[in-house]
Amino acid sequence: MGFTSDILHSNRKGKVRHGSVHKPVHHSVSFSFDDARELAYVFQGKKSGYSYGRQVNPTVTALQEKIDLMEKSYETIAFGTGMAAIGSTIFSLLRPGDHFISSSFLFGNTNSLFQSFMSHGIETSFVDATCAENVRAEIKQNTKLVFVETIANPRTQISDLEGIGELCKSKGLIYFVDNTLTTPYLYSPITSGANLVINSLTKYIGGHANALGGAVSVFDNFEWRNLSCIDDRYKQGAPVNWIVKQIKKKGLRDFGASLGPEAAHLISVGSDTLALRMDRISSNARALANYLDGHSLVERVHYPGLVSHPQHKRAKKLFSAFGGIFSIEIKDQIDCFDFINRLDLIACASNLGDTRTLCIPVAHSIYHEMGPSRRKEMGIADSLIRFSVGIEEFDDLRLDLERSLI
Ligand SMILES: *Cc1c(COP(=O)(O)O)cnc(C)c1O
Prior knowledge:
The chain has helices at 3-8, 36-43, 58-71, 82-93, 108-119, 132-136, 161-171, 183-186, 201-205, 239-255, 261-271, 274-293, 312-318, 336-342, 372-377, 394-404, and strands at 75-79, 99-103, 123-127, 143-149, 174-178, 196-200, 214-218, 298-302, 325-330, 347-348, 358-361, 384-388. By secondary structure, the protein is of the alpha/beta class. The chain folds into 2 domains: 3-270, Aspartate Aminotransferase, domain 2 (3-Layer(aba) Sandwich); 275-404, Aspartate Aminotransferase, domain 1 (Alpha-Beta Complex), CATH 3.90.1150. The strands form 2 sheets. A 7-stranded mixed β-sheet has the order 1-7-6-5-4-2-3, sandwiched between helices.
């Protein structure tokens, strides 16, 4: 079945009472048992069931199953935010003295989180992940994991997803991919050998900027039995279940950054139209990037759909479209704040993946805390403005830019 047909009916087919087409919002923290032995079996992992709201909720489970259909994953674990998904997963897999390699082109808060891991004794190397050889050069005896984003925000660098996948496979490293900017509709990281995939559900999957959420999808394509960090008590059944349990217990349960049922419902409803939105968003973004690329007041446009983009060929090969994020550097004679203030339709806001087109002066906001030297490393100019393109009619967006770029 097609992407949308598959996910659209997934709730309905999951034995929902009364023929409800949506999984109901189960506002319950506790779940009672008629038989105390049954409760014990659930707590002991001998039976599946609902123990306590921080760990499981039926509405959240239905969303997790939907993400599994999208990512073709073995099992997905939802969290309260994308950051919680990344942080809890790495926390449950790595130990002080372990080393991991990350792309240096990262979502700002992920960069900040990895700095925190370093101060807790987990070594991190940041590399230009657009070439797998840079990753290879950093591999050490204690390297356990490689983390990359598919398309990096705001400069839209594209990781060497296939090359790094082959490298991780040959070296036995966990390959952890952030698929937020591509979404499972434009790209399936499992095709490049990803073992773990994180999606911020807040962005395109939820799609309407009305709920925060994150998810980690686990794949059965790694020798999970070789991981030394897994608690002996979780080693039941196939080794892929060990890792799922480790993340659920050590990550989700112990940290408690759980997704609530209300947010899960909003995200689930939003996700029904992911494919339609991504088609419209990608076509709007491509046309706008082309328009701005030819504009006399624009110095540079970063968008994977432009043939001038350094990884254009890779994006074309791997992704079914080029996505909705581009950034521009404007010429010195215009002030980036004044330009943004002249925009009428396009909103100045942090966030991406909304149905509405948004823009933000990157160096002065989301990447401010990082400081000038790290910004320089990441190629973030002071005049860089990031756009997250929405589903408005293209002519209205173009006109807004045309009237403001003066
Ligand atoms: C937004 C974002 C995150 C974090 O997601 P939240 O849901 O905001 O915590 C992680 N990675 C990328 C690429 C993002 O854009």
